[in-house]
Amino acid sequence: MAISLTESAANRVKSFLASRGQGIGLRLGVRRTGCSGFAYVVNYADEVRPGDVVFEDRGVKIVVDPDSLELIDGTTVDFVKQGLNEAFRFRNPNVKGECGCGESFSV
User: Fold this and answer.
1) pTM for the full predicted model
2) In terms of C-beta density within 10 A (0-12 exposed, 13-18 middle, 19 or more buried), how is residue 9 classed?
3) Per residue in 43-61, is it b (16+ CB within 10 Å) or e — as a string?
4) Using one digit for the tens of pLDDT, what is the confidence trace for 25-74?
5) Does the domain at residues 4-106 carry the CATH identifier 3.30.70.80?
6) Domain boundaries, the chain
7) Secondary structure element (H or E) that encloses residue 37, with its range
């Protein structure tokens, strides 16, 4: 089991945590929503909760709850900028389909 970050994503997390002045890493998860079933949830982690699984890649801790990990195991997280827009993007090998707007996915 693993979650990985591109260099761009790792740099974004590091710089945000530094400017925020607190936090231990990136918290990833999923929630039920949208037309395809699941959506990614991205937050900055301030703690490791009981049951959380912690990965480290490129000097950044990635914290995932065990229920979400089943759906996102093997995912690579990227951070992209396109003009004025910037966002985390996910390459999840478990995805079987995505909605047209790209906000939700199914496994």
Assistant:
1) 0.86
2) buried
3) eebeeeeeebbebebeebb
4) 999 999 988 666 888 899 999 999 999 999 999 999 999 999 999 999 99
5) no
6) 4-106
7) strand 37-45
